[in-house]
Amino acid sequence: MNMPEIIKEFPRVPADIVRQASEFQPAILADVAGRRGALHGRIRALHPSMRLSGTAFTVEVRPGDNLMIHAAIALAKPGDVLVIDGKADLSSALMGTIMMTACRKLGLAGIVMDGAARDSLEIIEMGYPVFAAGTNPNGPTKNIGGRIGHPVSVGGVTVYPGDFITGDNDGVVVVERGKIESLLPLAAKKVKDEAARIAAIEGGDTTAKWLDGALRKAGVLKEGETL
């Protein structure tokens, strides 16, 4: 049985879990997820202050064509983040101010795209969170089909529709829909542990107690040697 090109409905991370997970930095979630799920660093916020969290609404387009993004905007739900596989093409922009304004009006939580945006200064002034691989003033075509609601590859990471996705100035992290809730206690513990370690450093305890053992394991120090 052939899958339709447009899948309109799929399970999403519940809104209360999104809210709880959004309290953690993407870096914290990536760490407790096994240091995985971070998109390639080419996908960056248009402005350092931008941050987003929500459920992934996946879109696949041909390079330089945004027909399916317009369809996605019509179908996405409040709280969704458009996650667009633009094939890392930067020869023309996939979205600009007009489309971003529509997304904001519809309550979409933001945009993550492996492609280019334009009207970046206007989008920054809007304060709407957009994470893109770059910018380009060229406009896109609107002629070529693609897919919506299918798994996509964005920044070298597979994103499934309904996954949790979050981003800040460090970059973007995706966590599987079925996994994010179980990571929340681990993330809270990591935040607490890191705060305690920073407090200890501020108090003068700057020694990394694990370092000698790691250096011996790596063969840099001999058994019994210390730095």
TrEMBL record:
Give the matching SUPFAM superfamilies: RraA-like
Q: Which organism is it from?
A: Paracandidimonas soli
Keywords in UniProt for this one? Magnesium, Metal-binding
Q: What CDD domains does its record include?
A: RraA_family (cd16841)
Which residues take part in binding substrate? Answer: 96-99, 118
Q: What is this protein called?
A: Putative 4-hydroxy-4-methyl-2-oxoglutarate aldolase
Cofactor(s) the record lists: a divalent metal cation; Mg(2+)
Q: List the InterPro entries hit by this protein, alphabetically.
A: RraA/RraA-like, RraA/RraA-like_sf
Q: Which residues cross the membrane?
A: none
Q: Name one GO molecular function term.
A: metal ion binding
Query: What does the entry list as the binding residues for Mg(2+)?
Result: 119
